[in-house]
Structures are given as structure tokens and as C-alpha cells.
Amino acid sequence: MKIKNIIITFVSAIALLLSTSVVSFAKVVGDKIVLGAAVSLTGKYSSNGVHTQNGYNMAVDRINSMGGIKVGGKTYKFEIIYYDDESNPKRAAQLAERLISQDGVEFMLGPYSSGLTKAMAPVTEKYGVPMVEANGASRSLFTKGYKYLFAVLAPANLYLDVAIRTAVELNGGKGVKIAQAFEQDAFSQDVRLGILDAAKDTGSEIIIDDKLPKELNDMAATLVKVKQMKPDVLVVSGHTKGALTAIRQISEMKVDVPMLAMTHCDAAKLSKQHGKNSQYALCASQWHKTLTYKDKWFKDGMTYDADFTKMFGYAPPYQAAESSAALLVFKDAFERANSFDQKKVRDALAATDMQTFYGNIKFAPGGQNVSKPMVLFQVMCDSAGKCENKVVAPLKWASAELIHPIPKWSER
Amino acid sequence: MDFMVFQYPMITVQACLDGILLGILFALIAYGMALQWGVMNIINIAQGDLVILGGYIAYFMYLYGIHPAWGVIVSPIIMYFVGVGIYKLVINKVVDRDLFISILATFGISILFMQLMNFAFGADVVLANSGYGTTFLFDNNVVLPNSKIFSAFVSIIFAICLVIYMKKSKLGRAIRATAQNARAAKILGVDTEKVYAATFGINAALCGVAGALISITFTIHPYMGLPYTIRSFMIVIVAGLGNLPGVALSGMGLGVFEEFADYILGTEFRIGSVFLLLVLILVYRRFKLSRKREYLK
User: Fold this and answer.
1) Cα(B108)–Cα(B100) distance, integer angstroms
2) Using a CB-CB distance cutoff of 8 angstroms, which residues of chain A are in contact with residue B119?
């Protein structure tokens, strides 16, 4: 009996050793550059996780078919190892560990959401693995002094900054009264900090400052207060459920407010789910297909939109566009570094200064992209009830004029 | 802390009315829970997930162009069979075991349902639009979405129908007999197995109605079930089993409590305050019980 136990232990120890050493294959195999990514394919972020994955795949396809990446006179192709992080931060951190120490990945792409990126960043940092992420906008990601984290998107505190500044401008430069309701998660709270900064800058006053719970599906109390206090701007950020609940209850309770600014309208398919009731809502977006940025691989936003729709059967939300952009950044950095040394690639990433169809990309020392502004679009409906998102700010890309103030419900 | 709700009388009225309408809906879910708790001695943790599943049925009807209000009829019919199915697969194996086993089993069902709904319907938040408009009261100072009024009205109708059914029909009497004493009912010729299945089915059907109403008034999401389970658990704890007026009253009480907590403490503490209240009530009941003279059985 005892001998049997010893043999079993011995055999399993050898098996364990083999499994860790044999499976690991390096970052560059033959003519392939292997990138690692943990994205949410199941769990609460699964829809946006899939957008992220589709965005990555589309870019891999495109870069590989257009000649790949040239490093040291040799041509390489991208390949991505995916794992499902189940929308769970703990799992994401484990998978980062696994990708690096077991699969031998030396370059990483980011997961979906700030929370998961936050969980993975310490791991990639520890191993000195450069990570280009496209879906973690929380400001706290960029204040920790991470050296190997780069984000192609604008940080969360800038999401609705434009809205407040526009409202002040329309008010003749005088401060406005702001009512705000934010979910209590890392991302939304960062959006809130951005609003506080903008309010301070412009001399605006915050008269309602509500926090929304995770299981939010009723914000009637906030809206009753809005009715009573009559602010100039109502700001709501609580992911898709926040956007959907706000529009439902604003239209049912006939809340009149001159400006309504939100996040996540895109993902909430606001105009599809609410039709005309969502009209005039202002939405912050990282990207819109009508922006005129250009690059060699995807040409421009409109072409990207058409190609993506052809490939995946639905129009790309900005989450997909920014994910595609992450790979363009990697390709550019590899070619400039002309090496697969992690340190050199990291330095090349830090020196990135390029234009993609998604926007200009240039990283601040913290790793966030500082050269791409947020855009605001407004939901506009025609008399037949067909609604469209039209860019209204910044003025450079505006395809329609901002409708302000929002007409009262009694006059619609 | 914000006491605005008391400073403006109209906001107080608004909060009370919102709370009562909401509470009636909660009471319907709680009634289903009380029913099967009383009959089978099972605390169904998956109650809220059945509600959400019912909501998805109404939502899919809405997607295919049928008015979601019809979900109130269709959803309970489908959910009845879902309920009977769950009973046949799982619950009948735990019905005579102790409470802990059944809680574990239904907890498992709850997780399974959440993940399955996420897998089948996606993680997006969805809703069905009824287009019912709004009622204005007191010089436009109080606004009530008609969808909320509609859901309270439908809940009341279903509750009344169920009470009559329990009193008059053969199955209803069999259910009540089983609740009083399962063994005696069995001896007198009641097929308790059938009664249990029907009870679980009726509970699921009530959840189906509530879910359809929630898809019209609020939003539906695979992971939103638990708050509804907690609320109905709490209502039943306060009202006791087999006390229908009590369930209705404590449902409305909870609704109003939630609304006021929302105004005073802030929306973020809305669900938290319900949990807190639950703890307080359990402690209070324990305290009351401990003051009774105990005796050896």
C-alpha cells in the first residue's frame, strides 16, 4: 500500500513537471507573434467581451492578410491565445498568471472593463509584460505608476467633461446647475470625478449628487428630485442598465431637463430599445464611425463599420473599434523596436505617436491615451420615428447641430 | 441623509404611492413563496430567477411584435410547466428532507438559471415597452407611470383569483389540506405528490406574472433575481405563512419603506436597507421568542 502511494506521488510529480515545461511555448514561434488575452466570454460582461474579441480578431485578420509585421527583416503574423475570464477579476488575474508563466506569452492584450484590467495589471507589471488594453478607462489605472500598461482609449474622467463644458458655453460662459447620478463602480465614479473637476473649472454647482446601486432598476427618487430642483444638466452613468432605466423613467415621469448626458448609450442600443423616447439624449463615446481619422489598414471609420458588419453581422460598437486599434499599436511598436525584447517593445510603445481609424494615439507617462478626445453624439429621430446617433461635439467632427435645450415633453 | 422627502408634501405622496404600487407587485411574488413554503416547507432561493425568466418570456413576445401585456397570460402558462419540471427533476427529491438541503438545492437551481439565462439571452439589460403613458395627479406634482398602475392592478386580480381557486376548487382544497397535515391528507386519499408538483407550478406561474410585469415597469437582466428573492423572503417572514392579507400589507409596507430609504439614505442603500430590515426583524422575532417560557417537548 505504502509503495503504491509513493509510486503514485512520484508519477504525478513527473507528470506535473512535464506539463509545465512541455506546454510552454515562447512568444514568437516560427513566424508567429503570440499575444495573450483573457476576455469575458461568459458572465455579466459577455456581450462586451465578445465585442472586444471580435475587434481583436478583425485586426489580426487584417494585419496578417496585409503583410504582417516586419521585424529584423523577417515577416511575422499575429496569433492570439484567448481564455474566458468569466467576468470575474480573480479569474482574470489567474489567467494573466497562467498566460505568462505557463503559456509563455510575452505580450498581452487587455480584457473588457476597468475592473478586470485592474486585476490583471499588477500581474503583467510584475513580469514586465507589455499590455496594450482597449477597454479599461478608469483613472486609477493610470495613477499607479505602471510602466507596462498602455490604454488606447481616453480615461474615464473625460467621458462627460465635454457635456458640462458645452452646457456652460451655451449658458453664455456662466456656471450651470448639475444633477448627477452615478453607479458605484470604479468606472462610473471616475466619470463622476471628471464632472466634479469640470464643475469646479466652470464655476458650476452640483445640486443633486446621487449614487446608484449595482442592481439598479429604479431611479424614480432621483428623478423626482430633478423635477423639484430643475437643474440645467442631468448626468447619468450606470452602464447599460443606467442608460435604459433613465430613459424609461424620464419618459414615463415626463421629466423636463434642458440637457441629458449619459454613458453607454451605444451598448444599451438606446434608440433601438426606446425609440423616440430616447430622442435628444447626449451620449459620450470613444469613437463614432463618422469621425475622419484614417489609417492604412482599415482606411477610415465608415470602411471599418462596413467591413466589421460584413464579418460579424452587426455594426461595431466603440468597444470593438478600440480593441482593433490596440493591435495596430502593437504592430507599430514591434516594427519600431525592431526586436522582441520586452523592454525595447515597452519603450517603443511609450513613444507611440500615430493615427489610426479610431483616433490619434499617444501615451502619457501614466499609460493613458491623451491625444484622442471623447465625442458626444445626440440621439435624433425623424418624424417617422427612425432614430440615429449624430455627432454634435467636438465641433470639428459634428455632423449635426446640438439641439438645446431639449423640448419639453408637453411640446413634443 | 437627505430629508427632502418630508419637506415637500408632494414628494411624500409620490413616495407613498410609488411604494404601494411596487409593494403590491412584491406581495404577488411573496404570495407564491408563502404558498410553497407552507405546503412543502421549502424556501425557494430561485424565486427571483423564476421571476426574471418570466420577464424574458414577455420580452421575447415584445420582440416578436406582440404587446408585452399579453405576457401576463402567456408567461404564467409556460412558467407553470417550468415549475412542474423543476419539481419533478429536483424538488421531489428534497421535499421531505430538512430545510438546509432544500435551500442548497434551490440555491443551485438559482445559479444554474442565472448562467443559463445569461448563456441563452445574453448579458444585456433589456426591457419591454408597453407605451401606456402616464397619470398626473395633484396639479402634475405627482406622476405615476401607467405601467406601474397596470402591474399593481394585474397583481391584485391574480391574487384574488388564486384565493378563490384555493377556497373553491378540488385541487385548492387538496393543497390546503396538505399544508395543514401532509400525512393525514395522504391517508385520506390526497395524492400529495401531485399536490406538491401543482403547488410548485402555481408558484412558478405567479413568478411568471410578476416577471412579465417587471419587464414592462423596470428592466430585466439575468443576474437581477436575488433582490426579488430577498424581498419575498422578508415579506413572508413578517407576514407568516398562510396569512394573505398579511402578505399584501407587509408587501406594501416594504415597498413604502424602500422608497423612503431611497430618498433619505440614497438609492445606493435601497437594497441594503431591505437586508438591514430583514436582520432587524429576525433579531426581533428571536428576542420575542426567547421571552416565551420554554418547555421540554
Assistant:
1) 12
2) 42
- List chain B residues with CB under 8 Å of A225: 4
pLDDT value of residue B49: 94
Cβ contacts below 8 Å, chain A against chain B, sum to 102
Q: Residues of A at the B interface (Cβ-Cβ below 8 Å)? A: 42-47, 87, 181, 184, 210-213, 215-222, 224-225, 227-228, 239-241, 244-245, 248-249, 252-254, 267-269, 273-275, 277
Q: Would you list the DSSP string of A10-57?
A: HHHHHHHHHHHHHH---SEETTEEEEEEEE-SSSTTHHHHHHHHHHHH
User: What does the pLDDT read at residue A22?
Assistant: 43
Whole-structure pTM value: 0.79
Q: How many Å apart are CA A114 and CA B243, to the nearest integer?
A: 48
Q: Which domains, from first to last, does chain B contain?
A: 4-291 (1.10.3470)
Which one, of B112, B39, B61, lies nearest residue B82 by Cα? B112
Q: Hey, is the C-beta of B131 within 8 angstroms of any chain A C-beta?
A: no
Tell me whether B63 touches chain A (CB under 8 Å): no
Q: Is B267 on the interface with A (CB under 8 A)?
A: yes
- pLDDT tens per residue across span B122-131: 777 888 888 7
The grid coordinates of residue B164 equal 378563490
Decide if B119 touches A, using CB distance below 8 A.
yes
Could you report the per-residue pLDDT of A55-79, keeping only the tens digit for each? 999 999 999 999 889 988 889 999 9
Q: Which domains does chain A have, with CATH numbers?
A: 11-154+291-362 (3.40.50.2300), 158-285+374-411 (3.40.50.2300)
Contact state of B11 with A228 under an 8 Å Cβ cutoff? yes
Distance between CA atoms of residues B277 and B55, nearest Å: 27
For B274-296, how does the pLDDT look when each residue is reduced to its tens digit (9 = 90+)? 888 888 888 888 787 777 655 54
In eight-state DSSP terms, residue A377 is E
Phi, psi angles (nearest 5°) of residue B224? -100, 10
Q: Out of A87, A210, A217, whose CB is closest to B266?
A: A210
CB contact under 8 A, B145 and A224: no
Burial B187-198 (b: 16+ CB within 10 A, else e): eeebebeebbbb
Q: How confident is the model at residue A18 (pLDDT cuts 50, 70, 90)?
A: low
Chain A nearest-CA residue for B9: A228
How many Cβ atoms from other residues are within 10 Å of residue B109's Cβ? 19
Which residue in A41, A85, A217 has the most chain B C-beta atoms within 10 A of its own C-beta, making it the best mutation to test that interface? A217
